[in-house]
Write a structure and sequence with these properties.
Number of strands: 10
Structural class: alpha+beta
Number of domains: 2
CATH class of the largest domain: Mainly Beta
Distance between the termini: 82 Å
Helix content: 25-40%
Largest sheet: 5 strands, mixed
CATH superfamily of the largest domain: Ctag/Cox11
Number of helices: 2
Strand content: 35-45%
Length: about 200
């Protein structure tokens, strides 16, 4: 093998190695970006029943009404009772409504939960606008504490223009509370705090 052909082979091997390195780095980058990109996609399109976050109420309400049902669930590990104050209401499209869910901590200690949510049918997620919701923050309940948690929402008037939803009569808003694990406090820090009190 001549010196020139060895140089060509070395250069080819370096190019292949560099391409493989770039490919691996791109795949690692995409794996880290997948969750935020999917979250952005769901927030933007309402995919998977993801509701929208509104900053203001619409200008007018329409005559068409829909029934909105309310569902409440608690996952294992969170000792709460969580229920809607009412099972359903009839709403005019474009009119702002406030409904309450009630959470009760059934344990003898403080617990923290956070709600995940969706609407069904999932195609209505893009039209379900929440102005205020307890699901945006972690909820901390003291032992035995009972709390009303309001949701302020409206159905976007754009739903009336969606021909695929002409036969829609009912939307279900569903929440599932799950336990939030708090990081353990160092024993030394706990001892110092009690010593200073």
């Amino acid at each position: 093998m001549t010196q020139a052909s060895r140089r060509r082979n070395t250069r080819r091997d370096l190019i292949v190695a560099a391409c493989c390195g770039v490919f691996v780095a791109a795949m690692i980058g995409m794996s880290y970006a997948a969750v935020p990109l999917y979250d952005w996609f769901c927030r933007t399109t309402g995919f998977g029943g993801r509701t929208q976050v509104a900053t203001a109420a619409p200008q007018r309400a329409l005559g068409r009404t829909l029934t909105v049902r309310f569902d409440a669930n608690v996952t294992g590990g969170l000792p709460w009772r969580f229920v809607p104050e009412q099972n359903s209401i009839d709403v005019r499209i474009g009119e702002v409504f406030t409904v309450n869910y009630v959470a009760t901590n059934l344990s003898a200690r403080e617990t923290v939960g956070q709600a995940a949510y969706n609407v069904s049918p999932s195609t209505t997620g893009i039209h379900f606008q929440k102005i205020n919701c307890f699901c945006f923050t972690e909820q901390r309940l003291a032992a035995g504490e009972k709390r009303e948690m309001p949701v302020v929402f409206y159905i976007d008037p754009a739903l009336a223009k969606d021909a695929e939803l002409d036969d829609l009569n009912t939307i279900t808003l569903s929440y599932s509370f799950y336990a939030v694990r708090e990081p353990a406090r160092p024993v030394a820090a706990s001892g110092m705090k009690s010593a200073t009190n």
